[in-house]
Each structure stands twice: as structure tokens, then as C-alpha cells.
């Protein structure tokens, strides 16, 4: 119930989530304050099987709609929105008195403020830098960049991308 509430509420807050990668990153940052999902490393940075399963189930049950959008480089992005059934499901979940909605809603608002103007790629580097740093907060930008390039050689993130992510994470007090 809590997980469904978090995921549906996060989609509602963002209005349109620009793809599955963004859905994972949005909820990764929500999870820092709720600790409801298990995240592990994947080709696209922090990834949760639970978020993936929710997406698959919600799509099959018409709780979310997924619409193709063409990006400037002719690639396809699958934009995620709540369907009417999703809004109804969320409304029912909001009436559950066992949810700690205030904590969850604050986490969703935090993630929204952090990520609202970012592309999925920017979300990916931010979450990846945070995830790596959470295992060793003594790493500098150069070392994190080398780790990311070793783990994700085709992502082509630059040292400057890592530095910008570190600055943003420190500014938002997500890193020491």
C-alpha cells in the first residue's frame, strides 16, 4: 500500500514522468527519506526491481498510461502519466489511515524540487553520483567519474557532469 501510494503520488506530482529511467531516479530520491524500496546498481545507475514491477503491473492494469514521444535525436521516450484508474486508486489509498502521508508527501516534494527541471540523463548522473558516494563519501569528483566510466562506459558522462552533480547534492545537503 505505501509503495503504491509513493509511486502513484510521485507520478501525479510530476504530471508527466519522462520515461522509466526518470521514474526510478525520482523514486530513488524519495526513497532516501522513506526507505521503502531496495535499490541496486544497474546500467542506468540506481535501479529498483520493485519500481520496475510496479510499472509493469500498473501499465497492464491501466493505472498508468505510457505515451511515445519523439526526442530531438529521433529516439523514443515513453512518457508516464496516471490514467483515470490511477487517479481513482490513488484517491482510495489517500484514505488509508495507516499511511504516514506527511513523511511520504514531504519526500515526494523534496524529490520534485530537486529533479523537476532535469532531463532523465541529468537525473541519472545525479542519482549515480549519490549512490556511489553513499558507499564511500571520501571519494573526490575524479575518482567518482572514473568509477562511473568503468561501470557505464557508454554513458559518456564527463568529469564536469560529475562535478555539477556533486555541487547540487551538497547544496541540497544530500552529501557531506
Q: How would you describe what is shown here?
A:
The protein has 176 residues and is of the alpha+beta class. The chain folds into two domains: 1-117, Arc Repressor Mutant, subunit A (Orthogonal Bundle), CATH 1.10.10; 118-176. 60% of the residues lie in helices and 12% in strands. The protein contains eight helices and five strands. It has a three-stranded antiparallel sheet. Strand 2 and strand 3 (45-47) form a beta hairpin. Helix 6 packs across helix 7. It is globular, with a radius of gyration of 16 Å. The termini are far apart.
Number of DSSP E strands: 5
- The number of domains is 2
Q: What is the helix content? A: 55-70%
Order of helices and strands: HEHEEHEEHHHHH
User: What is the helix tally?
Assistant: 8
β-strand percent reads: 5-15%
For the record, the CATH architecture of the largest domain stands as Orthogonal Bundle
**Radius of gyration, CA atoms, in whole angstroms:** 16 Å
Summarize the structure.
With 176 residues, this protein is an alpha+beta fold. It folds into two domains: 1-117, Orthogonal Bundle (Arc Repressor Mutant, subunit A), CATH 1.10.10; 118-176.
Amino acid at each position: 500500500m505505501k509503495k503504491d501510494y509513493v509511486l502513484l503520488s510521485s507520478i501525479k506530482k510530476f504530471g508527466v514522468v519522462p520515461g522509466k529511467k526518470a521514474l526510478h531516479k525520482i523514486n530513488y530520491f524519495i526513497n532516501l527519506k522513506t526507505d521503502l524500496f531496495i535499490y541496486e546498481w544497474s546500467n542506468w545507475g540506481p535501479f529498483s526491481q520493485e519500481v520496475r514491477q510496479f510499472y509493469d503491473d500498473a501499465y497492464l492494469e491501466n493505472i498508468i498510461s505510457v505515451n511515445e514521444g519523439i526526442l530531438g535525436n529521433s529516439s523514443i521516450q515513453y512518457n508516464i502519466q496516471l490514467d483515470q484508474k490511477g487517479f481513482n486508486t490513488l484517491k482510495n489509498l489517500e484514505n488509508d489511515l495507516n499511511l504516514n502521508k506527511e513523511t511520504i508527501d514531504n519526500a515526494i516534494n523534496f524529490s520534485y524540487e530537486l529533479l523537476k527541471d532535469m532531463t532523465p540523463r541529468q537525473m541519472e548522473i545525479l542519482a549515480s553520483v549519490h549512490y556511489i558516494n553513499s558507499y564511500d563519501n571520501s571519494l573526490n569528483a575524479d575518482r567518482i567519474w572514473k568509477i562511473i566510466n568503468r561501470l557505464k562506459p557508454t554513458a559518456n558522462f564527463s568529469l564536469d557532469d560529475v562535478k555539477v552533480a556533486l555541487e547540487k547534492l551538497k547544496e541540497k545537503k544530500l552529501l557531506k
